[in-house]
């Protein structure tokens, strides 16, 4: 089974802190994604990476950055956490290509609270 | 206009009934369409994908696609309480990287 592991299930941080969310996948997927999920808004794409060291902005990249130094690991960084970044963060990965390769595999999520 | 729109629900159906979930999308370049199921407190999991107009059946689930109307639906036959979840519609341009999700429809199946 594909496993996408997010380092923390719950995190509580203070405003202004630098926050790192880690995601590791074990299926050699080329593409990795960070979404945030808020009630009534669904999943919104923050950043994605289609290869090592490659990254692209999603729909809501402001206040976030990412790092992908190894194929299996994709990190989301909140440079200076703010209360409006309180959310559920979901990492996902998939193969490149079309058809069944477009299936996203999700991690279990990190519920981040910024106080 | 949101790129992918769904009724937020909740949609409540009795056990054994057919649940019908609907989704519209705005990008005519969308070529791949997905339904993900998300149980409360869990992450989404793919249950259906569809790529061409018409119906696609998998067990109790049927996905329907009408590209001319930019409309995707999911039918769940013989609904069970275990089907109670949020159903997320998602679309993607073929070869694109971004999968765009709707806000989801909450389904309750009453025993």
Give a verbal description of the structure.
The complex is a heterodimer of chains A (115) and B (111). Chain A contains no helices and eleven strands. Chain A has 115 residues and is mainly β. In chain A, strands 2, 4, 5, 6, 9, 10 and 11 form a seven-stranded mixed sheet that branches. In chain A, strands 1-3-8-7 form a four-stranded antiparallel sheet, with no helix packed on it. Chain B is mostly beta strands and 111 residues long. In chain B, the strands form two sheets. In chain B, strands 2, 4, 5, 9, 10 and 11 form a six-stranded mixed sheet that branches. A five-stranded antiparallel sheet of chain B has the order 1-3-8-7-6, with no helix packed on it. In chain B, a hairpin with a 4-residue loop joins strand 7 and strand 8. The radius of gyration of chain B is 13 Å and the shape is globular. At the A-B interface, strand 4 and strand 5 of A face strand 4, strand 5 and strand 10 of B.
Helix content of chain B: under 10%
Proportion of residues in extended strands of chain A? over 45%
Quaternary structure of the protein: heterodimer
- Summed up, the helix count of chain A is 0
| Beta-strand fraction estimate of chain B | over 45%
- Reading the helices and strands of chain A in chain order gives EEEEEEEEEEE
Low-confidence blocks of residues of chain A: none
Number-wise, the strands of chain B total: 11
Distance between the termini of chain B: 36 Å
